[in-house]
Amino acid sequence: MKLSRRxxxxxxLAAPVAGSLVSCGDAPGQTGRILRSAARLPKxxxxxxxxxxxxxxASGLIxxxxxxxxxxxxxxxxxxxxxxxxxxxxxxxxxxxxxxVTVRHTNSLTLPTATHLHGGHTPAxxxxxxxxxxxxxxxxxxxxxxxxxxxGGHGGGHGGDHETMDDPKAQVRTGxxxxxxxxxxxxxxxxxxxxxxxFTAPQVWRGLAGFHIVRDDEEDALSLxxxxxxxxxxxxxxxxxxxGALRYPxxxxxLLGQPGVEDRYMAGVLGDVILVNGAPWPEAEIEAAQYRLRxxxxxxxxxxxxxxxxxxxxxxxxxxxxxxxxxxxxPVEHDEITMASGERFDVVVDFRSLPPGTTVEMRNGLGTGRxxxxxxxxxxxxxTDDVRLPERLxxxxxxxxxxxxxxxxWHFRKASVHGRRGWGINGKPFDPAVPxxxxxxxxxxxxxxxxxxxxxxxxxxSPFQVLRRGNHGPGPMDLGWKDTVDVRPYExxxxxxxxxxxxxxxxxxxxxLEHEDMAMMAxxxxx
Length: 527
Ligand code: C2O
Ligand code: CU
Hints:
By secondary structure, the chain is mainly β.
């Protein structure tokens, strides 16, 4: 009997994940498989770089309507998306450190959501716990008995091969929900995105993601590029049908029953179109000046190694000034930036010496063909620029291992998820009702992450500092305060973390969103 590759993979947990599911041929350095578009794709660098609209609080309040919208992503085609305020990316929220803001979300979509502020130091009840759903009015009546009910359980009611996983503590709201963010944390680039139980990946893919920038007086006092010379860049890959609709291999395209994706995409969904701020391979017109770029990898599974080079082939370097959780102690130069899903890099790029007419291409060393292209800058004119990057940026303590700290180990590996193949942490699929750890507030712990494939590990509530990567110290991408760390196949990364202030339920999970939905997530409880 001849076993096909598919039969072998279908045979269950015995299939070696990193070997057989990581498509190395078309996607080196990736854990995931390419989903190809059927749509006609535009030529690179013909679409102008869009900037999301900015929203600031009025009397401490920002209101956002989650709604379906038909958006032009590929020129001449319409794409039906799930959006914040009708745009993709959602509006960029701009707030200040220590000024509590309430973000009032109204759900006018057809599906439940949960909104998480990624990197926010946020009380548990506003953190977007996956079963703390915001349900659109009428949803329960429309889907009564469907099993897609309010806790969004593991596909209960469909097929019978899943048991319903209920969460007795779920806080469900209908119509509107207020998320309260104290933002008592240093200035940095955060982002908000959907976190619905079992269906985060397709709902983020469909458009539920936006920037949230926190500013503070310390950062304002520094000489840094600002105003038009500060540009947020949300990088995300997608795939499109001929008519412009998003493609995605969900087991249930209605996103109501069986969660997860077709088996062959279990390692992650990689699109073949690279979007920056929602535009395919855009071009940004800029002056010959220094620019601050807030880089965010908002892709479901794709990793990038970003490099810049001019049209005459001269490399242009990045000066990193900040990481996920705030400014670095001092600027650090890089030839390239490698980013996994969820990570942010705050960089300054110096275009001053380039004559008008020069173009600078941002390429992806982990892509092939068109996924090796990201975006392009075009220098339009000379300009004055009196920014002098400071030598010291912020007080960041040296990451040291505290003596006698509790060490917790978190193993990110494939696991059986209610009888199907999936992903787990410490051998267990996510159970919202059972936390895997209890962590005392105010104590410093050492957390160690172990992997089989690439797993970008994200921890809610508090940032961490990387102490070790494998047998070495922190890598070049591990500097400063991180909340997401790119752990490569069969690697161990050790971090130091201290949780403060907010007691309750928080998450640790893989930020490959397909892995997350297929249960690579665990709750921990701060006490
Ligand atoms: Cu960016 Cu728990 O997520
Ligand atoms: Cu993962």
